[in-house]
Every structure is written in C-alpha cells, then in structure tokens.
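Hello Y.,

Per our agreement to keep a running log of every chain we model this quarter, I'm adding this entry. I've kept the format consistent with earlier entries: sequence first, then predicted structure.
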Amino acid sequence: MSCVQKQPTHTHTHTHTHTHTERQKYDSVEFSLLVLFSGMEGDPDLQFLLKGGDLLKVLSPSWKKTRFLRLQDDCKTMWRESKKTFKSCQTFPVADIQEVRMGRQSEGLKKNAEEQAECRCFSIVFKGRRKNLDLIASSEEESKQWIKSLQKLVSNVNNLNRMQTTEHWIFSCLRKADKNKDDKLSPSEVKSFLRLINIEMDDDYADMLFKKCDKSNSGYLDGEEIAHLYDLLTNREEIDVIYGEYAKTTGFMSADNLVGFLMKEQREKATLADAQKIIEKYEPDEQDGFLMYLHNVEAMILNPEHSEVYQDMQQPLNHYFISSSHNTYLTEDQLKGPSSTEGYVRALLKGCRCVELDCWDGSDNEPVIYHGYTLTSKILFKDAIKAIKENAFKTSDYPVILSLENHCSLEQQVVMAQHMSSILGSALVTSPLGDNMPTNFPSPEELKGKFLIKGKRLQKLEATFANKAADADSVDVTEEEESNDESLKLAKELSDMVIYCKSVHFHSFKDARKTLSFYEMSSFKEGRAVKLADESGKSNDYIRHNVEKLSRVYPAGSRTNSSNYDPVPLWNAGCQIVALNFQTGCKEMDVNQGRFVVNGNCGYVLKPSYMRDRSTEFDPITLTRGEWLKHKILHIMIISAQQLPKVNKKKSSIVDPLVRVQIFGVPADVAEKETSPVDNNGFNPAWNENFQFDVYVPDLALVRFVIEDYDSTSDNEFVGQYTLPFNSLKMGYRHVPLLNKNGDLLPSAGLFIHAMVLDEE
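Predicted structure for the entry above:
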C-alpha cells in the first residue's frame, strides 16, 4: 500500500474497530473482550476472572475475612463484595494495579499471614498511595490461577494503544448509560451518557444530536445509530484539517505527502523509505491511520530517543543529577503517619536512586526505622534493606545510594552492618574500585547494580591506603546530628562501609576546597541551600563546589505535612541529590518526575558541560554570556484535549478545563501563561490559543502542561499534567500524555498541541 487512508475502503481480517459486525457488538461484553484480548474471547484466564471466586482478605493476624472477587463485564473493573452492613461492594479499575505479587512479599502478608500459607498468598499492589490488597486463596493451584490471570489482564490493559483505550472507555460509558439494559439509548440515556463522558449540553443541542442519529425515527438509538453517535462525538476536526492540508491526492496521503508533513510540520528528517514504513505500520487498520500515527509513542511530545538511556554514563558520579527521596519510609506525614517498606518499593520503581533510612535502636537488638521523636510507626531495618535489594534494579540498573541517618548504639550499628553485608552481598561497595587511592568518583556505568552507603566515617579514606591511624579530631556529622547527636560513637564495621559518600559538616566553600576530599559530602537544609543558590555572587561558588563534590538537599523540618520545596534552583546550582518527599503528589514532584523522565528514567541525568567545569563562570542569577546562553523562542499552540477525567465524581459534575503552560529553569526563563476556560466540556474541549516564551538556558529548562478545572469562586482543581525537559520537546503537531496527581498515566486522556522552537536572531 502506498497511502495512509482517511476513509477506509476495504476490510482487513485483523481489524479492531468500526466494521459492521463489530458495531453489532458495541453494547455487549464481546466488545470489551475484543478490545482487550483480540482473538482471545474464549481465553480461560479471562473466563476465570469473569466468574470470580472467594478469597481471604488479610488485615491483621486475627482479621481475615472472606471476600468475593471478580472481573466485571466491562473487563476493566474488579468487583469485590464486602460483608459490611451498608457497604455491599467495592470496585477498583484494573488500570490502577501496579503489579500482582506472588507469596508473602508485601509488608502486610509478612506480618499477618502464617509461613505455611506462603504458596496460597498474593498481593494486588496499587499505583499511588492506595494500600495493598493482601489475599489468601484456598489452594496453591487457585492462587497461581489468580496471579496468572490478573497479570495477563493487567498486561493487556497496559498494552492497549491510546485509541483502543479511548474506545473501551467510551463504550463502558455507553453500557452504564443504558439503565434498563435493553441495548438501546433513549433521549434521557443519551444525556446521561454525555455527562458520563464529561460533556454538559443544553437540552436543545442534545435533542438535535439525538435526532441526527435517530435515522429510524423510533425515539431511541440502537445498533448503527449508536455507532453514528460514537462517530459524531469522536470525530477530530483539527485532525481532519491537518490531514486535508497534506493529503494532496483525493482521500489519501501519499508517501510524498507524508514526507512533506514530517519535514515541514514535525521538523523531522524523513525519507520516502521512512514514510513508507509508517504507512505500512498504520494504514491497514480501519481506524484513521493518520490519527493512529499521531497517537503513537514515537510521534508524541517527548523525543523517543530520550526515553532510552542516551547520555554518556561514563562521567564521574557527581556530574549527574540524581533522583532522590527524603524519609523514604514514610507514606504520609512526618509526625504520626505510617512507616512502610512500600515507601522504598514505590520510590525505587519510579526511578529513585537515593533513599533515606533513619535508624534507631529497636527491641531484641534489631534496629528500626522511623522519624525520631515523632509518633510515626516503626519498621525493621533489615526488612527495609530486603525491600530495597528486591526492587533496586527493576526500573534502573544504575547505582542506589543508601543515605543513613544513624542514631543507633554501637551494638546495633554492628547489627546494621551485618544486615547490609548479608542481604546486599557483593552488590554493596565496601572498598574503592581499583587498587589505589581514588582521586575521583567512579561512573554510574562502573557502579551498575551496586549499592553505595552515605554516612559517617571514622577516618579519611586515604588512611586505609597509608595505614594511618583514625583521625581522632573528626567532627563529621550528618544533618539531624548537627544539633542532636554530636557525641554519637561509630562502629568500625559500619564506618568501613562508607566509601564514596562520607557525610561531613559544611562550613564554607573556601573550607571545603581547602580541607575536604572529593568523597566528603555535605547535606543542606533547604533554607540554607536556597540561600546559597540564590545569593548574588554565591551561586557560582555553589556550582564550582558541586563540580568536585556531592551535595544533598533535604526539606525543612517545618514541612510536617510532607510538602516539598522547589528543586529547580538547587539543580541550577549543580546540587545532585535534591531529596523530595516522594509520597506527596504536588507540582514539585511533577517537576522532579519531568527532570528524570528522560535518559531511560534511569534516575541519573548528566549535567550540562559548563556545570562540570572547575573553572566555569556560569551563574544562573546574573546570566553572563557563555556557552549556556542559547536564546530560543518557544511557540506553543494549545489546540484541544481529549477524554479528561472528572474532578468531582458526582454524575452532574462536568469540568470547565483550562490549560496552563509553565516554564521552569533559571530565573530569566521562569514564565507561565494560560488559556481561557472551556465551559462544560471535558470530553473534547478546543482552545486554539497561541503562546510565546523566551528561553535563555534551554539545557536547564523544563516545560509543564497542566490542565485545571476552572472555578470562578475558589481555587481551580487539578485535572492532569505532563512535564518534560525543554531539550526533549519534539516540534510540530504532538499529543501530550497526561499524568494524575500521583504521577501515573491517565489512560485515555491527552492534550493536543503544536510546538515550534526557533533560534533568536
């Protein structure tokens, strides 16, 4: 085939949507099966889930109650029956499942299920902050069947393309709107359907839409009439306009036309061979091949080359920004919230490479982790180390730094060292790489699959090579110890594990240059760090300091609600380990996720060359001329959005969306502009508004698209957002995926924009 079709003229045997036969299935379970399990309608694993069964839900050693669990007919929602009075059932979307864990792997099952039940246990782990669902099956065989079936279902849901996800969601709403289940839609049911998909229409317009589809004049819609309603609602006029501009031959876009589009609009180098490959990949389905291509990951806003590890990973460790977490064990606030090993699991799976462990003496000579002098709950140190070991390298192969906040007695420090040695084994770095005293950090590449300990050390590393005695005058302390524990004694076994990240007190940049070795690093409370980063004349000193040393920044103690500070000024100053409260969904965490979404989400992003140069003159505040100054003009057109979620779950609640475009970076680049709101339409709002931004230091800039539900009487409510580095933004017509407040993908929602970056003359 030589063309991408706009209107299909023939049928292929593997078509997924819009054939006459399939339109007869739109109101049946078979449609859901077809979308989720193409060619697998009779799949036994799917049938097992649709049938469901009894499982034991586990909350404590004494609380184990039978619950009936099954997949609903929409094939995207799990239904759970509860025995509670006034609470007959609960549901949760399959898309909310992060993973299904076999055995007693969750914190809850380790505590609350007997060891002999290991083979019958499994956990459903959710995205975000929702607690795990810990379950026990009646037999090992049944447990394996649940795990296998759920994992297959989650995999299929996660692998749906954007158009399949959208269609599945729309038809689920159609099924919900059909109140009497007669496979027909009355006028009132059509209005109910419109509200479900986030559109509020006045009665006259809704009646006009109904009559347009009611070809039979029967007073209800069925079969082809429902399909026609679907086509009217999902037609993308903006795509039609773009397609028509380049589809020079009647009804089709030739390879020549496609090359013209790719080069002129998308600013991509493209050949006829490239265009032919795209045509062969996206033309055969009876969906609009052009729209399918624009929904493809390779054609979206993030440069696909940057979604893999593409940077030089052979530079010294301190030449990278490192994704870092503060008080990783906490899942809520800093005063009375729960501590959990799940905090480590979730942070590591999001690409975090530096986690924190606050260590205190526990009973039975077992160290514990919790936020000292507060009411937060406690977890065993060894359980945290086990969870870290099991999950450290699932998302990224690059090294994990364990930042120890050590408040333990000498005796329990020895136990800490024993646990880390036995659990982490050879993956724990306990001596410098090579035979001689190092003069610089090893690279992330050299440290793949390794753990580094950050903490106090009794002596200089040089002493181990020169056989010198320990420095008895050492006053090295970590941040909380500065005021609380200066007299804390350190066990040699634990001290010897600190190689490349020795915690020391910061006095001044001059003192650090004069007295500190490369591996001696300081932690800065956010207030002091921001002052050093923002102070005129000091910011360049901070950058030069971070060319040679590592710096860690952590939130102020006043942030008891686990709120976060702005990480951008600290990155501008070259700070590598900017630790945030990962459990808190907020703008700052969105920006952090945007910073590290590139380079394969490996948790390491290479700093620009001028932030790795000892003699650099770069100053983000004064912004003198230099290689960092690359003035760009960013033109953004906000065109439309699709399938935005409801903010308020009430059926009558419809969002009034507006789009805000924000630039983060050096102070000269910080900017924000917003569209006007669109009333009562979260399904397919259109804006067609243009913005222009000046960006002077693109290497450090980030672009954030955020959609909010406009409210004239109170603060707008968050709908979804996406943040990415300026240099990873693709030009042309692009779909922007949207993430929820926890940083997880909103499956069918999206924003459609046009972007252009020009050099300022």
